[in-house]
Design a protein that fits this description.
heterodimer, A: about 270 residues, alpha+beta, five-stranded antiparallel beta sheet, three-stranded mixed beta sheet, 15 strands, about 35% helix, globular, B: about 325 residues, mainly alpha, two-stranded antiparallel sheet, about 0% strand, elongated
Chain lengths: ~270, ~325
Amino acid sequence: MILLNGQPLAPEALTTLGGQSASAREILNAMATNRDVFAFSHINILQFDIRLRAALVQAAHDMNNSQVRFATFYYSKCNEKYWILTEEGGFRLRQDASPSAAINDIFHNGQLYAFECATAMVILLFKAVMTAIGSARFDAVYRNIYLWDWHEDERLPLVIETVADHGIPGDIRYFKNPQVNPRTPQWQGENAVELPNGYYYGHGVGIKKADGVIDALNKNRRAGATVSAYLMNRATRLDTARLAMITGFPGASRSTDRSWLNTSVGYGQRPFYG
Amino acid sequence: MNYTTPGPLNDVFRTHGTEELKKIWKKWYRADPVHAVKQLNEPDLVFPVLYTLKSDLHKDDQQLSLKNRLALYHIESIINGEPFHFPMNADFFEQHHHGIHCLRWIVSTGATEKVDEHYTAVVDGACLHLLHHFNEDCLGEIVDIIFHRHRAGEERHYLLSAFYDANEPQSLLYVARYLYSNAPEDVVLAKKILGFIPGVKEARDGRESAETVAHWLESNLPYLIHTGENNDSFPHPIPYAVHTPAKYLGVPIDRRTGTPYRGMTPIERERWEQFIRLPHALQVRLAAHSEQLRRWQRQRWREWMRQPLQEQIRLSLPGEGRP
């Protein structure tokens, strides 16, 4: 369900907002038909959210088609023309490098890069923001970038929300492998971008339906494992309203109030007896 | 980490570095192979020395101690993905203890070094085997390594994941020790890991944060659910969540499944059904009140629990539940 200024979004608005983009229509439809509530205080913020999600989906396809490789943090590598490889396996933007050129280089010169799946998600988020706000604005806002794990960057605000119904394209989901073989800790789970039509992109596993991601993880469990990998019920999302303020996107002054959203559903809400 | 008992090779490693160590040991070996190997088999040898010399050693060399041979097998297993075969005929349970002894040696004498680009993975592998294959309690050591590497800006992702996934909430106290640290970066990391506990981030200082952690564990430990979230899955993981109905009823649960350790009475089930219909924020407050009353005034708690739910709310949380 989509709420705009506290009111359900009119069905005809869905057609207008979706426009010609199949990806945007899919995103809007997934929100509108969802039992989870997606609340926006301003139409511009909703449009920004759709634009970001569509850009994230496209970035996932682009990364899948690039030559980047998966590597554990021990063996990360990057193009040192743009990035400094750190001891913890992260990429720090060189001071004289253009942030947008450096992010684009990962997709264009993929053979020079290898990284873990959490780092991949942060790269995709930056790429989506760049697509949504344009390279010039991106270069002005993101002078310092550090790509490592889920490293926090206050200019890339993220929220983690419960997915009570189904995810939305552009969500970042996590497939957990609780009985991973300790010899291959990189298979402990897979961060994945939710794509249209039930597909997911995970760096290292490619584009697959949920069952395909789970099968790949299950092949890397310890001997005697009895618990399957599974899709966790929370999603990492860009905090679009805050991001709009940070990047100066129109409509940002009227930020979304997420505080009333029921994002802290408690555990044990189902009977724990038979 | 244990560097208090120096041996000749340990001294060379520490004072002259890896290249000099290789040269000197080769020189010793050429002069007197038995003596050179004996130096490696000294019980106070630190793991980085053996690791540095690995290309000059063979894992099936019978002159090497079993601990050293196991360590060489472990190194090859991590770096080359080769199977880890136990290098001698031994009772299965004996193998188990030899394995633990070797891996603990790697961790205790080698965790804070970095010899080459593979070394961190080898140490991490030892920690993960101890934790997941041998079910050895090494979370205190793992936390110390994580904080050491954080200060040094070195890789720690997989150890932190293993810490979260260990499903041992009391081990959060190992992290809480770093809230008292004089190093600001320690406090930052400790607060990041423990930040899911209400009040930790808002506390005025490290001591207050640490007390918040201890109090939270005292109040919630029997009612925690292990969520499976870790630093790999989310930027702000919540590894443990309070099962509010269990806390309200005072029924300890299995952290993995959320099932109670004992069957519930029909009255408890009915009360549970009523309780979960309350708004979540009210559940949290009522469960907290119930736990406090149960802990300090058990007889009063029993009387309170016999009251209808709305009466409990009226008595304990004035102002709640009214339209």
